[in-house]
Write a structure and sequence with these properties.
about 600 residues; 5-stranded antiparallel β-sheet; 4-stranded antiparallel β-sheet
Length: about 600
């Protein structure tokens, strides 16, 4: 536990709203999650852009308090006596505890956990929290009374979101980097089993059933077929699903397909269930809507299913399946005790939307800040997250470049003119400084790259000059998290310092190509990894900044970790004709690479 100096008063946020603090997006709140008090009297939101938590009086719809809470809050839950909140700060590597009292938020403690904490689950008695550490593939157990980290457990890559069974004995973890749901037995603190999601990417929030038998979650699937209009419309490129996995025993996952022919669903993330379990509700952030299902008779399919398009039974029954247009970017959702009112954190609308899922209408909208006009960067952000820019709204830029970064698959974008030459997704940070672009480096014009992305990869309409300028302005903002593998002051630890020497040595010879501030020379090299199917020869030196985020390496994902890159496919002996590195050199060099 540490001091509370990272909590700043509402005054700071008012300065942000007035535009008196630096930052192109400082005027916006961008709520990503919402929690509703047990008695329904207040709700709270985690606001990502402003780095704050807002408290709202539900009866009046007024924001009664707002305090700064870290750098990049991502998730929040009620804890302890129900009058406290626990909040993750992904970029800051901390989990914070706030008390709700008389319409105000009172900081209680912060717990340093490091390594990008994101999703949370809280024990039934409210004393213990579990958090996914995305950067290291671990979950952490926190003692909320003592304000301390208790223990960690390795579960797999990118454990973004998780859920705990009502009895507190089984913890479900969505490991997006490995396309699987991991089930942890909490009393023994061991992984009980894992269920594979074939082709799965971008696993969303998770919701347990009241009997503790199942955990429900949305996700997307990549099908590894060539990008063309027919394949997209068949659901053979990308598609959206809701799945459920057993928590009491290992059994192949069951799922339903969300995508409607001609008007698909994209980027589902939030999920909740009514208290009587009659309704299952999902927020589809890419298509700006709530999806409402009658849970009892959904057509779940296991092995061999589901199909690539929505089951016709859902289309014939409006009570079984409904879509509610929300606009913006709906993210986290919370269900009221009346089993029909849903509160939606809408990122791009800077508001909480109150939705009646039975009448299928928005009944109220609660603004979290004074309304401000959209600047160019915010307009570009809206384009980036908008799946309606693609053919029949199947996927957005974010679907593949998750929050501007990478996903866990090698994909065929058809960008280089050849089909089924799979390439790992490149991150979109520092774009203006790291040209030329694409793995083969043939692209030298970012405006042309934007055009091809919309019209070829997404098979959508061309972007206007204004839209392309806005998108590039957004992508050129500093959106990357502080590197969690560096010391608090940004310096390298001792192991990484030794690795830097290896990196720059004539033996490893890394710096001869990976040079400069962004660790790329911007040139094309033949490193012996090409294939006859490639449209172009050689590969553009990729930037190494933020390489710790990746779970697949080299252009075609043939390497599963950095150690495999350095000892096999891209070893100094293979690339430079020097010698193999020793085990100690590899360990040091790996530590340095993760710190870039």
């Amino acid at each position: 536990m540490k001091s509370l100096t990272n909590f700043l008063p509402i005054t700071l946020l008012l300065l942000c709203s007035a535009g008196l603090l630096a930052g192109p997006l400082s005027n916006y709140r961008s709520p990503v999650d919402v929690v509703l008090a047990r008695d329904g009297r207040w709700l709270a939101t985690a606001n990502q852009t402003s780095g704050s938590v807002s408290l709202v009086d539900v009866a009046t719809g007024q924001v009664t308090d707002e305090i700064a809470c870290g750098i990049h809050p991502s998730f929040l839950q009620q804890c302890l006596d129900g009058q406290h909140l626990v909040v993750t700060d992904t970029f800051g590597g901390e989990v914070s505890i706030l008390k709700v009292d008389d319409g105000k938020l009172h900081p209680q403690a912060t717990i340093e956990v490091g390594y990008q904490p994101t999703g949370l689950a809280v024990s039934p008695e409210g004393q213990t929290a579990y958090v996914g550490l995305v950067a290291t593939g671990e979950i952490a157990e926190l003692d909320l009374n003592a304000g301390k980290l208790v223990r960690k457990l390795e579960v797999g890559a990118w454990p973004r979101y998780l859920a705990l069974s009502p009895d507190g004995k089984r913890l479900a973890v969505g490991c997006s980097g490995e396309s699987r749901i991991v089930v942890v037995d909490v009393p023994t603190w061991e992984v009980a089993y894992a269920e594979k999601l074939s082709g799965g990417i971008n696993i969303g929030h998770m919701q347990c059933s009241a009997d503790g038998k199942y955990v429900y979650f949305p996700w997307m699937i990549y099908r590894s077929n060539p990008i063309n209009r027919d394949n997209i419309r068949r659901g053979w490129v990308l598609g959206s699903r809701i799945g459920r996995v057993r928590l009491d025993e290992s059994e192949y996952r069951e799922a339903i397909t969300l995508d409607v022919p001609g008007t698909a669903v994209a980027d589902p993330i939030g999920i909740t269930m009514s208290g009587d379990e009659k309704r299952l509700v999902v927020a589809a952030s890419g298509t700006h809507e709530l999806l409402v299902y009658r849970r009892a008779d959904l057509p779940w399919e296991g092995i061999g299913g589901p199909g690539d398009l929505i089951d016709p039974k859902l289309m014939r029954d409006e009570d079984m399946f409904g879509r509610i247009e929300l606009g913006g970017r709906p993210m986290g959702i919370a269900m009221a005790n009346d089993n029909r009112t849903v509160y939606v954190a809408n990122y791009l609308k800077d508001s909480v939307q109150v939705v009646d899922i039975e009448s299928r209408e928005i009944v109220r909208e609660i603004p979290l800040a004074p309304s401000v006009s959209l600047n160019q960067i915010r307009q570009g952000e809206a384009v980036f997250y908008d799946a309606r820019r693609s053919l029949d709204q199947w996927y957005s830029c974010h679907t593949c470049h998750y929050n501007g970064g990478v996903n866990s698959k090698a994909m065929d974008t058809w960008n280089d003119g050849s089909a089924l030459t799979m390439k790992t997704v490149l991150p979109l940070e520092n774009l203006h400084e790291t040209g030329p672009w694409t793995w083969h480096g043939w692209q030298v014009d970012l405006n042309d790259a934007m055009h091809k992305s919309f019209t070829t990869t997404m098979q959508g309409r061309p972007a206007s000059a204004e839209e392309k300028a806005a998108l590039l302005a957004y992508l050129n903002t500093d959106r990357a998290a502080p590197n969690p593998f560096r010391e608090k002051d940004g310096s390298l630890n001792t192991t990484a310092q030794r690795g830097k020497q290896v990196f720059e040595s004539s033996v490893a010879n890394c710096a001869s190509c990976h040079s400069g501030v962004y660790f790329t020379d911007g040139k094309i090299h033949d490193v012996g990894l090409g294939s006859d199917e490639d449209e172009y020869d050689g590969f553009n030196t990729p930037s190494l900044v933020g390489i710790y985020r990746k779970v697949r390496f080299l252009h075609d994902a043939r390497a599963r970790n950095l150690e495999e890159v350095l000892t096999d496919f891209h070893s100094p002996e293979e690339v430079s004709g020097t010698r193999d590195l020793t085990a100690e050199e590899i360990a040091d060099l790996t530590a340095y690479l993760k710190a870039l």
